[in-house]
Amino acid sequence: MKHNFSFPKKEKLKSKKLIERLFKEGKHLNGYPLKLLYLELDSPMDVRIKTGVAVPKKKFKSAVQRNRIKRLLRESYRLNKQLVFNNSEGNFAFLILYLGKEMPSYPVVEKGMQTILQKFIKKIDNAKVD
To answer: Can you name one GO molecular function term for this protein (predicted)?
Structure first.
């Protein structure tokens, strides 16, 4: 089985409408220092999960710092996304927010990413049972 560790353009969440819907209707999970906003989508898309990352300007004034954190978020998502792809059905939109107050190291971000993705899988499994 070949693992796909890429994060192609078509998997990126870019739609303003969809991002607004995520904030209005989406559910969320916390796994410090990250927060996952997710929304199940009815319409089939070309990919099962569209993902975006965000870092608040209020906590990180410097664009350089924000971009660095977003790079760390995207990288840890890219390496751990098979957790979700292999253990869930349906189409989703994800927005991963960084909630910490200081610059993270990669291991901190990766641990948070694994935590929220595992919580997401549990939540989806429980929703299927109900």
So the answer is: ribonuclease P activity
Asked if 93 contacts 50 with a C-beta cutoff of 8 angstroms, the reply is yes
Rounded CA separation 17/104 (Å): 30
Model pLDDT for residues 64-101, shown as the tens digit of each residue: 999 999 999 999 999 999 999 888 888 999 999 999 99
- Which of these CATH numbers, 3.40.50.300, 3.30.230.10, 3.10.270.10, 3.40.50.2000, describes 9-129? 3.30.230.10
**47 touches 13 (CB < 8 A):** no
The backbone torsions φ and ψ at residue 2, rounded to the nearest 5 degrees and listed phi first, read -90, 125
Residue among 22, 34, 48 at smallest CA distance from 117: 34
The label of the residue with tokens 């300007």 reads 57
Judge if pTM exceeds 0.90: yes
The number of angstroms, rounded, from the C-alpha of 109 to the middle of its chain's C-alpha atoms is: 12
Phi and psi at residue 104, in whole multiples of 5°?
A: -85, 160
- Residue given tokens 């965000």 in the structure block: 54
Q: Which residue has 């291991």 as its token pair?
A: 107
